[in-house]
Amino acid sequence: GLVSSATAFSQGLVVHTGPCKSSPSPLLLRHFGPRPRRDGTVSFMPTFAATTTTTTTKLYRCLRKARFLSTRVLLSSSSSKASPQEVSTDTSCATTANTSVPNGIGGLPQYGIGSIDLTQKWFDLVKGGDVVATTSIKDPDATVRYGIRTVNIENDGSSSSAVADTSSTSIACMEFVEEITDHANEGTQQQSTAAAHPRVQQINATLSRMQSSISSASSSSQYAVQYERVGEYAAQLQLVRTLRPPPSAGFAASGGDETTCHPPPYDATADSFVVGRFRLQLRPLVGAISTDDLSGLSTGWDIYHNVSPADSRGHYLLIPTLLERDANWRGQVLTRSDCIDLVVLTDSVHPAGSALISYNSVGAGASQNHIHCHLWPCPPIPLLGDGIDSKVGGWECYAVSKAEAVASAALCNEKQDNSEVAVSLLDYPVCCIKLSSTSTIHLGAALGTVIDAVQSMFDAPHNVGLLNRSDGGVDAYVFVRSRERSPRIVPGSRCGSSEMMGVFHTSSEDQLNELVSDEHQDSAGDEAKGAMETVLRDVSYEPRDEVWSQILKHLHTSMK
Fold it and tell me: Strands 171-180 and 227-230, how do they pair?
């Protein structure tokens, strides 16, 4: 009874209702207005704001039943709310509610942040068909749909269906790609999945081969991933991620050119996170962590899924809440407050070491000019099983986490509680500063000081990787770089935080083979252990002794 006609709804109807049984507070209903589909029909995207979750959830469920399947729910206790044209969020992660993660779902690991169970959220997203995107490819022109879906795994290890049977205990989350030939039925089961495009055929042939080898064993063979390991490093083939949206203007450095860490001026009208077909408003909100949820946060943080996941077990985006437009609609540059928040968020990951939180600056793997970080499960698939000690925690599984310090210092904040932050320059192919502490606020402040030095003194592209430990501490790795790509080895491939940590993502089997080659020298002409180590040396900022010296001075000055 809230909406009497489609005509009134399309005109921007705003309805206030009085108190209801579940809440003494009024409820406000708003909407985005009509949104045309490709087939000429129109969908509507209502947005709700209520002072209690119960009220909003009940109304949301009613509209779901009324076939308003594109609704978005906005929960906020603030009286100052962003315009519905700016922000749209969803408390439901999938169209199927209360679906528990079944035992044996491809070995999906348990991981979460704050009070949010990211394992359950990912399963709900995939099962609900939310981890799906469409894009256009050329030569010839075609529209393809790609993403992650649940697949039944038979006892013999073969996949039997793209639609999971929830009664089965053998379900896996797998990548897929299909060409869309019936645009009138885009997003439905009626469209053709025949792959006429050569690129789609090539991807599907490789995916089919990898997925046919999946087994129910409790190791990395549970996952349809092709990878190779060389010492502590790993290279992993990722075909579907090659279809991800293009980078923002100014984010595509060519070849192995040296580059800056400062992005172009922020422009909200060109920000793909808030405008366009991939905007976050069109995705369900996985979760929101407020300043009340975690002590020490400077702002709330929203969690969305990545439309081009790097890990079939989960890949999330961490975004400073979009509700605070003036403060959080900004470019891909870390602030001191961001650094403190990231340490606080990492400290809340559970179990300890089960997820990596990472940041890529412009020139170091970032592709979109809106402040954001990544989160995915840890250890990564190539570092599971196959001789890897199963007792090794996620905080010590990466190549960088096994590197020794060549120089170190201990910082003590005497003004407060004498909490100590250990700072080290690591013996690692790429210049890396490690910071560790059990004090999240002091570690975050020290991290902010290091990032400020990297940005202001060196203008160096950089990555940050954060992992929490079982002893209650957090490790932060800052990678200081000169360029985004190696000019010699897979020069067409950008290197981000995963590569800096020691796990490389490749877009073809040729790239994979090149990265596992051992016939390379580093940029100084000395023998390197292999191609992956050579890539890290090629993108490193040198001389690193200067970086270490200046960062230490910056840290000591900030402590006074």
Answer: unpaired
Strand order in the sheet with 27-36: 15-17, 27-36, 42-49, 72-73
Other beta carbons within 10 angstroms of residue 52's beta carbon come to: 16
Q: Is the dihedral of CA 98, 102, 108, 113 positive or negative?
A: positive
pTM of the model: 0.79
> In this structure, what token pair is assigned to residue 538?
């090629």
Distance of CA 316 to the CA centre of its chain: 4
The Cα diameter of the chain in Å comes to 75
Structure tokens at 246: 């293009």
Expressed in angstroms, the distance from the first to the final Cα of the chain is: 64
- Residue 223 CA to residue 385 CA, distance in Å, equals 11
Residue-wise pLDDT tens for the chain (560 aa)?
344 333 333 334 333 333 433 333 333 333 333 434 334 444 444 444 433 444 444 443 444 333 333 333 333 333 333 333 344 433 333 333 344 565 446 568 999 999 999 999 999 999 999 999 888 877 778 888 889 988 877 655 555 544 444 444 467 888 888 888 765 555 544 444 454 788 788 888 888 887 776 654 444 556 778 899 999 999 998 876 767 666 666 666 545 577 889 999 999 999 999 998 889 999 999 999 999 999 999 999 999 999 888 899 999 999 999 999 999 999 999 999 999 999 999 999 999 999 999 999 999 999 899 999 999 999 999 998 654 455 668 899 999 999 999 999 999 866 656 579 999 999 999 999 999 999 999 999 999 999 999 999 999 999 999 999 999 999 999 999 999 999 999 987 889 999 999 999 998 888 999 999 876 655 555 555 799 999 999 999 999 999 999 999 999 888 76
As a whole number of angstroms, the distance between CA 155 and CA 357 comes to 35
Residue in the block written with tokens 């840290």: 555
